[in-house]
Specification:
Layout lengths: L1 H20 L4 E5 L4 E7 H8 L3 H9 L5 E3 L5 E4 H4 L10
Antiparallel strand pairs: 1-2, 2-4, 3-4
The structure holds zinc ion.
Zinc ion (ZN) binds next to helix 4.
């Protein structure tokens, strides 16, 4: 039974790390959604959608996803719009 307790602690630690990682997302205004949404970086969007970064850029160009650009030129993807896309829609 001791082992079980230890396992639970490990899971808890991992979850905290995942939450910390998600802090990279930015809550910002999406003009297409017309509301505050979570915006994430292209590589994060690629990981979530399980596609390559190139596919994300293609979705941006095709306006399949909402996006915003920071003053620094960093491209951010609207998390709400990302949910509507599937990797199978865009075969490589
Ligand atoms: Zn949006």
């Amino acid at each position: 039974m001791r082992n079980r307790t230890r396992t639970e602690i490990t899971i808890e630690t991992e979850r905290i790390l995942i939450i910390r990682k998600r802090k990279g997302s930015i809550l910002t205004w999406c003009s297409t959604c017309a509301q505050q949404v979570q915006m994430i970086k292209v590589d994060e969007a690629a990981t979530i959608a399980r596609v390559s970064s190139r596919t994300i850029y293609r979705w941006v160009e095709a306006e399949k996803v909402h996006f915003a650009e920071t003053p620094e030129g960093l491209l951010l993807i609207c998390l709400s719009s990302l949910a509507g896309n599937r990797p199978s829609d865009n075969p490589e």
